[in-house]
Write a structure and sequence with these properties.
Length: about 425
């Protein structure tokens, strides 16, 4: 019997499921369904075209299941992000450890005066070489641009000669020399309180790692997933008791170094996220610790929303490693390959490509890339400031002086690149 209102060959029958075979039901579904892949496969089941449509349909269905499973697992694995804030100047993302408390940030202790004066004097390092070391380790802007061209050439030449003499006499590398004139962790830390544990200097320093930065050698307490504060206030957080040696800062001449980059002296504490390399961040953030004064920082929770953020794809650049599962190596050397520090790795790659060397703050122990000596460093700085292209450079520029300094300092050799080894 045909029901009114139904057109076509479809016959209404309340028992049509019971009266049709599986093949009939499949054929009916393929005719009425909008899943064209299934329909094409069924309609061409007796020829090779059916095999083609079967493979296409199965492949796309498997891809759909994979994408759905990946998105679901990624959503379920997401952790709440937080943000540390010291007064109004510190804003650094850190992770939240589940419901057990707020993940505490990492603490970076640096000497903003770069080196210890008593250690410099003990090693017989002159004031001229001290300025040369500060300029080699620090920012490229630390040297005064107002300094005369020939005065700067003399400064480079004399500093480089004395540096090479010290390295040869003491059988040291440049990195060894910087380490020798810097504070060690146990010279800075008296004791610390981590959560409910009170540790002496030796035990506390076992949780620190040394890192090369633009302020020289810094000591980083890298917060782990166990460093979470379950309560509010100053209880059960991180507390460090610091030894501050008075009048141990080298005398830096403002006629050589820019005072805006050397006016801040003393031991500095900087809060960073537990996945950030401190190479550059220590220059712009941190509070100088004063003797006999409690310096505290408050960490607050902020949810980071990154919906809609897009990343420009660069096929020529090797991808950064995901942060998850990475264990920090000595000197935080593998942190330069992680996603939060891609900008540092890009800077290192650029310097290696155009200057065939790297900055002290971006170098790692056992590095295959040589360190830039001061002449190389300023030369690369000039290239970057001129957009890597400069026609008709004046003979009095830093670029022209580079080859002349090397010829005078090393007779018989051309304008080769001379570097202190790591």
């Amino acid at each position: 019997m045909q029901r009114a209102g139904h057109e076509g060959s479809f016959t209404y029958d309340k028992d049509f499921v019971k009266k049709r075979t599986v093949a009939d039901m499949t054929d009916l579904m393929c005719q009425e369904s909008t899943a064209h892949g299934v329909g094409h496969t069924w309609n061409n089941r007796r020829n090779l075209l059916g095999v083609f449509w079967f493979l296409v349909t199965v492949s796309l269905f498997a891809l759909l299941l994979y994408v759905a499973a990946t998105l679901s697992s990624d959503f379920l694995a997401r952790e709440v992000q937080s943000q540390s804030k010291v007064y109004v100047s510190f804003q650094t993302a850190v992770k939240l450890k589940g419901d057990d408390g707020l993940q505490l940030p990492s603490v970076v202790l640096c000497n903003r005066a770069f080196f210890s004066r008593r250690k410099l004097e003990a090693m017989g390092i002159s004031s001229s070489l001290t300025h040369y070391l500060v300029a080699s380790v620090g920012s490229t802007f630390v040297l005064r641009e107002a300094k005369g061209v020939h005065e700067r050439a003399t400064f480079w030449q004399e500093g480089h000669a004395e540096l090479q003499r010290i390295l040869v006499d003491r059988n040291m590398t440049f990195a060894d020399l910087i380490q020798a004139v810097s504070y060690t962790c146990q010279e800075i830390i008296l004791q610390c309180i981590i959560g409910a544990r009170r540790l002496n200097a030796a035990d506390c320093c076992s949780g620190f790692t040394s890192a090369r930065t633009m302020t020289g050698v810094c000591h980083v307490y890298l917060a782990s997933s166990a460093d979470a504060q379950p309560s509010e206030g100053e209880h059960m957080g991180l507390s460090f008791y610091i030894n501050i040696t008075r009048d141990d800062w080298p005398d830096l001449d403002p006629r050589i170094l820019d005072v805006s980059h050397t006016a801040k002296v003393g031991l500095q504490a900087t809060l960073t996220s537990n996945h950030t390399h401190p190479a550059h961040v220590v220059l712009g953030k941190g509070a100088v610790l004063q003797p006999g004064i409690l310096t505290s920082a408050t960490v607050t929770l902020t949810v980071v929303r990154d919906i809609g953020i897009k990343t420009v794809l660069d096929l020529s650049e090797s991808p950064c490693l995901p942060l998850a599962g990475i264990q920090p190596m000595p000197g935080l050397q593998n942190f330069l390959d992680t996603e939060p520090n891609c900008d540092l790795r890009a800077t290192r790659t650029c310097l290696r490509r155009f200057c065939n060397c790297t900055l002290y703050s971006l170098s790692i122990p056992g590095d295959s890339v040589p360190l830039c000596v001061l002449m190389d460093k300023m030369h690369c700085h000039g290239l970057l400031r001129h957009g890597l292209v400069e026609d008709g450079l004046p003979e009095t520029s830093d670029f022209a002086l580079k080859a002349e300094i090397l010829r005078r300092h090393m007779p018989g050799r051309g304008p080769a690149w001379v570097r202190a080894s790591v």
